[in-house]
């Protein structure tokens, strides 16, 4: 029967946001590079002579349209005024007794129509004259606009690249990830990363609740105390192994062995015997697993992959070996 995979891989959005914010330097650099490229390309490709020629052509066309509209309106007004004078002169000289009522009504309607047309064209001419006269304006290169757009696009692509790298990476990023995915008990993390004292970095850490890492000696005590609490009382031999380097495994073993004497947290009545193993992929280490009661895993952040941890846990599950917890370097 095929073994069911019980491990779940979830995305921690808060952790993803923290990773994005911590990359603020790279994101700004990426945005600035795109801004310079976009703005520079637009500035270099911009030809002022061509722009002036296009602007002058547009200006001349606008002036031509302006003069044509003005002349057309003035011509229509002048023509309608002449027609109106003719109608008025006709009415003043005609003998109304000899003209039928229908003809008088038609003449009156025509006269009113001409007056309305004169009024409408006069208003249109006044509106046209009130407008600002066309001016010759040479457009700018638009490099500033392209620079801003390039900055925004560069920032977006930078964030997208960080998200893709985060989602595609199979490396162990921290203890919370191992707890969430594999339900492993955390024994301790030896954080070797130096915290930046830059105000923005401190603000980001404060926003996401990232605390200052404890000192090395304090972490050693925390690891030993957790091991003492999580170990089964019947366990006598505990194998220290994992996918970290041999030096990391040896260092973790030395810490546990050192805590088993003197005032160490592992100097208890039921003192276990810690067996120093190599990487769990080593055949000798795999053979040594069967002779131990429990296993302490040692992993390296940014080096150990989640697939490696999953393979380790499947191996130990098949051998019915209990995992005490995990130590991270």
Itemize the secondary structure elements and their pairings:
Elements (H helix, E strand, L loop, with lengths): L12 H10 L1 H22 L2 H46 L7 H30 L12 H26 L6 H8 L3 E4 L9 H9 L8 H15 L6 E6 L3 H13 L14 E7 L3 H7 L4 E6 L6 H13 L3 E7 L1
Parallel strand pairs: 1-5, 2-3, 2-4, 4-5
Helix pairs in contact: 2-5, 3-4
**Strand adjacency order, main sheet:** 1-5-4-2-3
Characterize the largest beta sheet: strand count, sense, and whether it forms a barrel.
5 strands, parallel
CATH fold node name of the domain at 216-328: Rossmann fold
Could you tell me the strand content as a percent range? 5-15%
Helix content: 55-70%
Named at the architecture level, the CATH assignment of the domain at 216-328 is: 3-Layer(aba) Sandwich
Count up the helices.
11
CATH class bucket of the domain at 216-328:
Alpha Beta
Notes on the protein architecture:
- The protein has 329 residues and is of the alpha/beta class.
- Among the domains are: 47-130; 216-328, Rossmann fold, CATH 3.40.50.
- Helix content is 60%, strand content 9%.
- A five-stranded parallel β-sheet has the order 1-5-4-2-3, sandwiched between helices.
- β4, α11 and β5 form a beta-alpha-beta unit.
- α2 (24-45) runs antiparallel to α5 and α3 (48-93) runs antiparallel to α4 (101-130).
- The longest helix is centred in the N-terminal third of the chain and has 46 residues, at 48-93.
């Amino acid at each position: 029967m095929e073994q069911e995979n019980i491990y779940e891989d979830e995305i921690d959005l808060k952790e993803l946001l923290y990773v994005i914010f911590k990359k603020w330097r790279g994101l700004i650099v990426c945005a600035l590079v795109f801004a310079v490229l976009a703005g520079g390309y637009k500035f270099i490709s911009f030809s002022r002579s061509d722009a002036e020629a296009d602007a002058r052509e547009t200006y001349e066309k606008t002036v031509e349209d302006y003069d044509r509209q003005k002349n057309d309106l003035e011509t229509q007004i002048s023509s309608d005024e002449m027609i109106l004078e003719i109608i008025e002169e006709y009415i003043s000289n005609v003998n109304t007794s000899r003209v039928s009522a229908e003809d008088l009504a038609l003449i009156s309607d025509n006269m009113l129509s001409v007056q309305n047309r004169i009024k409408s064209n006069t208003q249109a001419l006044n509106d046209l004259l009130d407008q600002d006269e066309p001016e010759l304006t040479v457009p700018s290169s638009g490099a500033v606009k392209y620079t801003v757009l390039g900055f925004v696009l560069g920032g977006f692509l930078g964030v997208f690249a960080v998200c893709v790298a985060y989602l595609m990476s199979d490396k162990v990023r921290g203890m919370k990830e191992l707890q969430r995915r594999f339900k492993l008990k955390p024994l301790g993390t030896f954080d070797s990363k130096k915290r930046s004292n830059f105000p923005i970095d401190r603000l980001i850490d404060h926003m996401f609740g990232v605390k200052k890492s404890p000192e090395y000696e304090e972490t050693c005590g925390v690891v030993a105390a957790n091991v003492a609490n999580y170990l089964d009382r019947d366990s006598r031999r505990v194998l220290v192994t994992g996918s970290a380097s041999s030096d990391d495994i040896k260092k973790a073993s030395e810490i546990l062995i050192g805590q088993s004497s003197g005032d160490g947290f592992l100097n208890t009545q039921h003192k276990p015997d810690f067996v120093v193993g190599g990487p769990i992929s080593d055949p000798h280490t795999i053979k040594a697993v069967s002779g131990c009661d429990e296993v302490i895993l040692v992993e390296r952040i940014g080096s150990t992959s989640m697939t490696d941890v999953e393979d380790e846990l499947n191996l130990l599950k098949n051998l019915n070996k209990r995992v005490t917890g995990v130590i991270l370097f």
